[in-house]
């Protein structure tokens, strides 16, 4: 009996169909067998605040434009600015970002983001920063202008305010208190403030103008002129001592400028006097009093330098004090002539003839008083006492004080 042979054909067909099914389930794009697609994740931040931007359209593309194999994926950033793209084939993808109010980042821009996707992996993209656009948006800038010399509010004078490329001319200084509406800008911008009679002032907004700004109180420096004073008729003992002088420029009862200088500097400069302001100059010099202030009258728009002499002979008077000179000595005899003088000023005490001066015994001279003379105070002076008969002399150096009502006594011993 011949047994019937089995036909294996149905079994082979089933096996082939099973293999095709498996390949279709686990196969991946471009014929990569047994692999799943990859993904991309990242975040979008505001370039100024570094806060995540919600609702940004994120588009990922791979392949060249016009190719049959070009692929595109879309998503939107969440409330924290995060985004995620999945089921992407293994390839290099370019990302673009777009949202109204922000400068778009295209896939062909210099700041474009490119990332390579690998199967079974999520590629993490560094945070992308988008710059907000401020076209047709305005902010208000306010502030207060004051005089830096007297601290008063500046209310008068033609003013100009320049914000970048926008200029506000023929304004009052107080209009800055109300404020100026200017286009918002994320770029650095400079404010230039020009008020007649004052130096130009600059305010730098290095971070741009993205919101209303109060620049606070701006102290404007008045346009000024200077006075150069020159010392004249300085006595030798004053020049040698080289005292320090304090100089004040008064406008009314207010000092608007000051200076300090030594006499040996021969000149001094008082700067920062407001333009057009007449001033009275007063100076303090040791041992002297001014006869009266020196008044300077500039023209209304003068901003240069005025030269003025300060004479210690004509504009000042020395502070004087009585000095009583006493000559002592063991060898002063009757009928000797005794005298004294101040070496610096030339002041002389009249010669006195000795007649039975007081002493240890009658006829033995001891003390001779020459009387008083006035000499300048505040400086060390040399007083010389002498005896005419035998040509003897001696010198005493002392400073004459200006705070005594009675005569200052200078005693010179001549032996």
Model description:
- It is a single chain.
- The chain folds into four domains: 32-130, Immunoglobulin-like (Sandwich), CATH 2.60.40; 138-220, Sandwich (Immunoglobulin-like), CATH 2.60.40.10; 232-309; 320-413, Sandwich (Immunoglobulin-like).
- Helices cover 7% and strands 48% of the residues.
- It has helices at 9-26, 175-178, 236-241, and strands at 38-46, 57-62, 71-76, 82-88, 91-98, 113-117, 122-124, 128-130, 138-147, 159-163, 166-171, 180-183, 189-195, 201-205, 213-220, 224-232, 244-251, 254-262, 267-274, 279-284, 288-290, 294-296, 305-311, 316-318, 320-328, 337-342, 348-353, 367-376, 380-387, 392-399, 408-413.
- The strands form nine sheets. Strands 1, 4, 7 and 8 form a four-stranded mixed sheet that branches. Strands 3-2-5-6 form a four-stranded antiparallel sheet, with no helix packed on it.
Q: CATH topology of the largest domain, anyone?
A: Immunoglobulin-like
- The overall pLDDT average reads 86
Distance between the termini: 179 Å
* Major β-sheet profile: 4 strands, mixed
Number of helices: 3
CATH architecture of the largest domain: Sandwich
Number-wise, the strands total 31
Which keywords apply here?
single chain; 415 residues; mainly beta; Immunoglobulin-like; 4 domains; four-stranded antiparallel beta sheet; 3 helices; 7% helix; 48% strand; disordered N terminus
